[in-house]
Amino acid sequence: MDRDDRMETLSEAECLRLLGTVPLGRVVYTEHALPAVLPVAFRVSADGRLILALRAGTRVARVLEGTVAAFQVDDFDRAGRCGWSVLVHGRAEVVRDAGERAAYETGGLRPWLPEPGPEYVAIAPELVSGRRVLPEPESARPGRGTAARAPR
Known about the structure:
Elements: E1 7-9, H1 12-19, E2 24-31, E3 34-44, E4 50-55, H2 59-64, E5 68-77, E6 82-94, H3 98-106, E7 118-133
Antiparallel strand pairs: 1-7, 2-3, 2-5, 3-4, 4-7, 5-6, 6-7
């Protein structure tokens, strides 16, 4: 089977659905004119924004404020060598509304390291894309009646 036969481009609707199925993603932003990537806990809000939970007092929220950032999530099956990846681009804004912040905190959205407390940044999706790598057919898997392929 050709490698391209296993790659599927996801619709925006499917990408947005998949975003809500994992609790962790990576925010990609620029710091000191260099790309930076940070794994963060997040949630998709009712209005479709991605709400990132960051540690309060870190520079990340200040650096993200008002910029265009990227956010990437994925899930994969090592044994099946398949999975999906979704990439979102959008403008990032620090969540300043006290009621909104309290709702996220009481709803359990917390950064990996919870102290000194959460700070929330919202990313409104503007560009959304994704891909899925489909499982190999049983007949193409090593040990299933066909010769194992050499790694490429």
